[in-house]
Amino acid sequence: MLIRDTHGNALTGASAAAREHYEAALDLLRVYRNDPLAKADAAIADSPGFAMAHALKAWLFLLGTEPGGFEPARAAHAAAKAAAATAREQGHVAAIGQVIENRWWDASRTLAQVAIDNPHDALALQVGHQVDFFTGNARLLRDRIARALPEWSPGMPGYHALLGMHAFGLEECGDYARAERQGRRAVELDARDSWAQHAVAHVLEMQGRQADGIAWMRAAPDDWTRDSFFAVHNWWHLALYHLDLGEIDEVLKLYDGPINGGRSAVALELIDHSAMLWRLMLRGVDVGDRWRPLADQWAAFASAGNYAFNDAHAMMAFVATGRTAQMVEVLEAQERAMARDDDNAMFTRDVGRPLSLALKAFGDGDHKRVVCLLRPVIGVASRFGGSHAQRDLLDLTMIEAAQRGGDTALARALTAERREVKPSSPHNRALFDRARAVARAA
Q1: In sequence order, what are the beta bridge partners of 33?
Q2: Buried/exposed code over 353-384 (b: 16+ C-beta within 10 A; e: otherwise)
Q3: Per-residue pLDDT, 263
Q4: What ranges in 304-352 are assigned the alpha helix state H?
Q5: φ and ψ of 380, to 5 deg
Q6: What number is the average pLDDT over the span 85-106?
Q7: 198-202 average pLDDT score
Q8: How far is CA 436 from the centre of its chain?
Q9: Distance from C-alpha of 259 to C-alpha of 296, rounded to nearest angstrom
Q10: How far apart (Å, rounded) are the C-alpha atoms in residues 47 and 24?
C-alpha cells in the first residue's frame, strides 16, 4: 500500500511507522526544535528505502552551511536518489545535488518548480525558503510562499509555518505592517514557531521600535527558546534592541548568557557572536577577552571556503585577535573558492572577498582602504546572503571607517541617510550628530 504524508504527498518506501517518525521530524524542523535528525534516522531505520527520509536527512546536514555536513549529505543524497520514484522526490534529489555542488540558484529554481507542482510539499517550501535566505533573494523569500498560500488553510498541519515564512519574506521586502500581522498570527497558532517569532523581531528592528521589540521577545521566551536550535539568533535580536538603546551592560549580559553561554561551535551561531562583538568594537566598547575563545572556535572554519558569509564572520574574529596566519587561511580559501565554477565563487568574488579584505584593513588601521573596498559592495551585499539586519554591519563598518579615516563629508552623508531610514533609532541619531559635529569642526 502506498503511504502518503498528512498533506497527501506520496512517500516511496515508507511504512506507516516510518511515516510517523518522518512527520515528527518535519514538525520539529518547522519550529526549529529538538532533534529532527534523530527522527529522520528513526524513519530510515524502520524503512531503509524511504526516499524522503533520506532527502530530509540530506537537507538537515546542508542547511547548517557546515563544511563537515557535506559528506553525510552526499551519503543521504545517494540513498534518496536510489529510492526516489515520484517527480516530487526526484526534484528534491536534484536540488540536494545542486546545493552539494554549491549551485544554490539552480537549487532555488528546482525547489520552486517542486512547490509549484506540489503546493502542499511543506519541506520543499521550507528548504526553498532557506535557500532564498542563503542567496539573499528577498523577493523569493516572499513569493515562493505566496504562490502556495492559497492552497493552504488554517486547519492544515504546519499552516503556522507558512505564515511565519511569508512574514519574513514580507519583512525583507519592506512590507512591515503585513509582515507583523502574519508573524504574530503564526505565533498565535503555534507559540513554538521561532521562525515566526524571528520574523516579527526583524520587523521591529527595521522600524526602530526598540521597546516593542524588547516586549515581544521578553513576553514568553520559554516558547521560543525551549529545546530550540534557533534560540541563539533570537536572543541576538533581543540584544540588538538593547544595543540601539545604548544599554551595553544588558547586551554583554545577553552575550555571556544565552547568546554565547553554551560556547557553540555551530557556524550559524558563531556568526551571531562575531556580529555582536564587532558592533560593540565599532562603538569602542571594551569586550575584554571575549574575542579569543570565539576566534578559537572559528579556527576550524578558516580554510573551509564553502560559504562566503561564514568566511567574513570568521575574519572578524581573526582580525580582532590579530591572528594573521588564520586571516591568510581565509583569504587563501577564498582564492580557491573564486577559482571554482559555482555560486559561492560569485558570493565570494562580489562580496565576501572585498568584505574580508576590508575587515583586515580595518584591523590594520587603514580606514581609507576600508571605505574604498566597501563602497562598491554595499549596494550588492545581498548577493552573499543574510538579512537586512545582518548586512547592516557593512554599513556600520563603512561609517566608522569614514569617520576614523577623516572622510567627514562621507560620514555625514551616510549617517544622514541612516537617520532618515530609521529616525527613531538613538544610535542612528548619535552617529549623525557626531558626524555633523566633526564635519563642522573640520
Answers
A1: 228
A2: bbbbbbbbbbbeebbebbbbbbeebeeebbbb
A3: 74
A4: 308-320, 324-339, 343-347
A5: -120, 15
A6: 98
A7: 98
A8: 34
A9: 17
A10: 15
Helix axes 194-206, 388-404, angle to 10 degrees: 40
Cβ-based neighbours of 45, under 8 Å, separated by 6 or more: none
Helices (H) and strands (E) in the chain, counts: 25, 0
Task: Give the residue from 337, 329, 330, 328 showing the smallest Cα distance to 306.
Answer: 337
Distance CA 106, CA 30 (A): 23
Mean pLDDT for 265-269 is 93
Contacts of 68 (CB under 8 A, 6+ apart): none
Burial class (CB in 10 A: 0-12, 13-18, 19+), 204: buried
CA angle 40, 41, 43 (to 5 degrees): 65
Res. 147: pLDDT tops 90: yes
Q: Which of 228, 229, 172, 247 has the alpha carbon at shortest distance from 205? A: 172
DSSP per-residue letters across 168-223: HHHHHTT-HHHHHHHHHHHHHH-TT-HHHHHHHHHHHHHTT-HHHHHHHHHSSHHH
